[in-house]
Amino acid sequence: VKSSVPGVMITQYVEQVPAGKSHPDFTRKPIALTIQEGKFAFFKAIITGDPKPDVKWTRNNGDMSDTERYIISYDPIQEEHQLQMPNVSVDQADTYKCFAENEFGRAVVTATLNVIETQREQPQDFKKSLKTRADRPKEERKEGEVDERFWELLLSADKKDYEKICAEYGVTDFRWMLKKLNEKKREIEEQQAQYVEYLGNLRHIEIKNTGSAQFEFEMDLKDPNAKIFLYKDGVMVPFSVDADEKHSLRQTGRRFVFSVNGLSADDAGLYQVDVEGVNVFSTDFKIPMVEFLVKLQEVKAVEREDAVFECVLSAPIPKITWMGKSTPLVQGEKYDITVSEDMLIHRLVVKDCMKVDNGIYAAVVGIKSCNAWLIVEGKIRYNPPRMDPDDLAKFSEPVIIKVGQNASFKLSFVGREPIKVQWFSEGEELLNDTNIKIEKSSIESSLRLTKCQRKNTGEIKLKLKNEFGTIEAVSQLIVLDKPTNPLGPLEVIEASSSCLDFKWRPPKDDGGSPVIHYNLERQQIGRNTWKKIGNIPGEAHYKDTDVDHGRKYCYHIRAITAEGTSDVFETDDIQAAYPGPPSTPKVVSAFKDCINLTWTAPTNTGGTNIVGYILEKRKRGSNLWSQVNRPEDAPSEFVTARDPKKPPGKVIDLKIADSSYSSLSLSWTKPKEEEGVQDEAKGYFVELRPAENTEWTRCNSNAIITNSFTVLGLKSMAMYWVRVVATNEGGDGEPQNLDNYFIAMPPPVRPNFTDRKMKSFLVVRAGNSARVTINFEASPIPTIIWLKDGMPVTKRVTVSNTDGTSQLLIPSAERSDSGVYTIIVKNMVGQETFSTEIRITDDPKPPGPVELEENVPGTLTVSWVPSPDEKRDDRLHYMVAKRDSVKQTWQTVADRVFNNNFTAVNIMPGRQYVFRVYTKNDMGLSEPSESPTWGIMKKKEKFTINIPESKTCNFDSAPTFTVPLKTHASPEKYECYMSCAVRGNPTPRITWYRNNVSINANSNYFISNTCGVCSLLILSVGPKDNGEYKIVAENSLGRNESSTQLTIRGIITLLCPEILLSRLFLQ
User: Fold this and answer.
1) Residue 983 and residue 1012 in contact, taking contact as beta carbons nearer than 8 Å
2) Which CATH architecture has domain 292-332+352-377?
3) Where does the record place the Fibronectin type-III domain (predicted)?
4) pTM of the full predicted structure?
């Protein structure tokens, strides 16, 4: 958990803090304190938390059990926790910690107490003078006998670093140090003024993320041609404008940036920049001599959890650099960076890990580093698909619509992704189609059925499935329509001379609504008119009593529901009165293959002539009766009374409009009409025959009237024959076949590479993976072959082919994998090839020893031992650089040298030359091999300087304020900090006044005087603190004062007449 106050570390004990409760936190933390020995020291803190936290104070080194030296108190009015140390001593200087803890967490903050030791006069010990022999008197250190590095660092350092530099060099007399430093500053400024017009924005050396160290400053030179020199520990260091050199300079306008590349332990030291022999900048480069006792380890974290990296150092380091995927990491909401109290254990916490946090994380200390992988894995929880009960109940309600309308179903859900969503209608899965629209997301899915028909009525089911389970939701779709016509056959219950009683079957589909009525019409056979009987109740039964004996009747029956009236059902003819039964048959004679029977005609003929008898027989012991005489033939089909028609001719211009792996689209032109030969076509049939079959299959059961058709459900890459048959009332015409068979695939496309810029040469570092991706288009799916130098690739090479892409991958490539790789993309239409050269190489190794030989005056022959990589890399060559004793910069004199020697010309006598030879290949440059120095050193005369004797100076002076007090305006209850700088010798005595009343002994004000910098701190400003503040400095030579006015924001300050008079008097 992150505090709103910087520097506060909070540890939360529970995952979720209850509402209204909170873990401890600091709204005001103790501040670091530097105080003189014997003064009153105290730390104050304001802490929040519910329940109220327990507060505890500790120190790093030492005991706090002495209640007289350590007073712990709490002010309930100000709600401040205080640690007071009256009459503070040097041994109490330490790092103090304040702990606040309750049941939900703990908060910790640290503050440092620095105690300045007071110089005391030691009482004279006369016993020391009683000795048997005289000792050599110990010489006191004279002023100025300090390492010159000390002054050079102070001259370029910030004031805040003075104390640290003094402690490092053992200087404790700050007053003397400041006095001496001011003298040196005046001297160096006078020297710099000869060559430098402006010098500022000094930034000391620090290690960058690139592994180099840099320091910089801004400078304007009076003479742009003035020479700039770089020294390390007093020794001149050559530098270059080439950023790849060990020491380099980059100048942008007035900004100078010096870089030290390829850091090692030998690069530590004092770096100085001189202009024409005058020092302008000094910086001390210290490389921490530390090792990783425990390095970073690979961390695997579950998504949405925290990952912790931890390392242990061999020496205390207050802060190290953390890198994440080559980017510096800082404390914030995403990263928590902490260090142990002993500064040995450093920890990085990556909060709320996500997949994007995968990568390498590193800890960097100086030139040492270690790294490890962070692997974020998906969090697996039991999370099956689930639905809200209310949404499920609403979804289960039937959806009732009319035919032609649209129906929509929608349901929300939750569960671990991915969730497979399927919609079903009556058990058959629904897919996106013309009238079916399915939308899916991670939280909901919807189904929309457009232009619904009666056949769409049924169960609609949504099925959700993931790795943890399956759930289903069921609803009903009811599409209302008019009913279908009632069904026969008609069952005659009674047919007499006075009535016809019959019944029929209800409609097969009532359209979703019950039958309310039946509408009947009657026609007497032989007449053309229909008599309306009217509506009868919804029972499929009717008794007609208005009949004539012996007449035949035909009925029209329609079913009526709330949605409409059905089509008509026409009954067979029914005769009013059936004949009575004939007499019992008598056997006249019987033979082995014939039985003769007689009977008497029925006495009741029903008013009509008897046209025949039906005779049935049954074997003895059997209950099955079978008809003896042959039944009547079935009636013929309906025939329209018209002139005969001729079948149509063949369709014209039959062709393939489009094709895919599963469909074929055809188009044609209707056949011509020729009177008496072929009539107009009324429809078409499309017939298909696979190549392996001999029978033709019709693709459409009913004739289509359009001149195009799409055949679906083809087998990919299968061979088919197709033809079209025109038809009309005269029958089917002759089929028209395609000229050739076709294959179920898209239109053929010759292989073609789609990338505009394809690399024909690729350099890969040995050990890395080599990857070549080729995009192409081709139809049908082509065969892809990869070759290396004309031969098939080995098993080391992985080839991945997808639709339109082929990728070649060489994991952990070696030099032997170098070669020309060729891809061949081939199908039935043609083929295409492309070649690329892959060169596997590594950073070149430097050449062997370099030798120099002068064969011709004015020239030098540079020769060297070949690099070990020369035999393994045919593109390897060498580069030669030269430096002489005058220019002191490296210059490239030869490049792309493919042998092992080079002749340098224009060699000047009296100069010293050094040569470097680099190995170069496709990866870059190697480390150089340097030659011995060539030339004769000139003898230089001894340089002497006569320094005049220094004159003694009197530095005594009355107090003067170099920086006076400033006017302050502060909001109530905020801190107010006043400071000024005073100079004088002997050291002035400082007294603070508020409204002319001394406040030196007032514990509400924290007063300090460090090296002439006087400060006054008011921790919580209140109305009582309003007024005039004055500081008075006195010594034996005089007295001086500085005053200011503190205004509490929002309070009008009125000066009393005495104060106004005193100010006028001072002016």
Assistant:
1) yes
2) Sandwich (2.60)
3) 486-580, 647-748, 846-940
4) 0.30
